[in-house]
Amino acid sequence: MSYCINLDCSEPKNPPNTDRCQACGASLLLRDRYRAIKTLGRGGFGATFLARDEALPGRPPCVIKQLRPSTDATHVLEMARDLFQREATILGKIGSHPQIPRLLDYFETNQEFFLVQEFVNGKTLQQEVRAGGPFSEAGVKQFMSEVLPLVQYVHTSEVIHRDIKPANIIRREEDKKLVLIDFGAVKDKVNPTKANSSEQTALTAYAIGTPGYAPPEQMAMRPVYASDLYAVGVTCVYLLTGKSPKELDYDPTTGEMLWREYVQISDHFAGVLQSCWRFRFAIVIRM
Predict the structure, then answer these.
(1) Per-residue pLDDT tens for 116-170?
(2) Overall pTM surpassing 0.90 (yes/no)
(3) Domains located in the chain, CATH noted
(4) Of 163, 175, 182, 188, which is the active-site residue?
(5) Is 163 an annotated catalytic residue?
């Protein structure tokens, strides 16, 4: 199947070898080489597609991420272009890690911005929990032992991920290694984009993160490295309970999630998880 990437198309599904969308007339070969075959996700600011690179032998799979700003105002498009180029630069830098998808291509077409990345075959941790139930304490400790060095690598590159959550961590089928995906909310810690609040509202509200997994300072557009540790801690709670943050109650005084009653884990490990959000600015993890 060929899938039309025009977000306004009413009938995006097309026969496999068609060059033009039968519904809207848009080209189905992006940059004369990438053919989308299905949508992986869609939102108000763009979409993500599974595609094939028809310029290479075997037509290998890849992932195309499309960003379309919510307005065509000149200053917003310029800001989008700057953020897009910054994101591509960051992904090019950190994508040398074997547990981060490689950046294959990036380009702009008709005021829309596209990133092409390596396709990772596997299931997300969210899918694993939904299919097999919550993890054990040992399973979550194993998760932390693998994901924390990965987050440390990202931070060593002076980058904050800002959207760590179970749906953005894939267990790769070939070797069972965890792969961190979806760097659409990445923030360059050294050279943060300077913009007033109205511009950020127009363009970058999508990049704040996921409510429940993002800490208060990140939701206020002031993320720090420790914000990713908060998200790791909340991800651990999801893996243990099978419940997303919105499914849990919160302490009305402290605002902390009330999750302890749903799991049987050691007090020591519970304290480690609590420290991810309670003391994350000076955290020392000893499992």
Answers:
(1) 999 999 999 999 999 999 999 999 999 999 999 999 999 998 888 889 999 999 9
(2) no
(3) 2-118 (3.30.200.20), 122-282 (1.10.510.10)
(4) 163
(5) yes
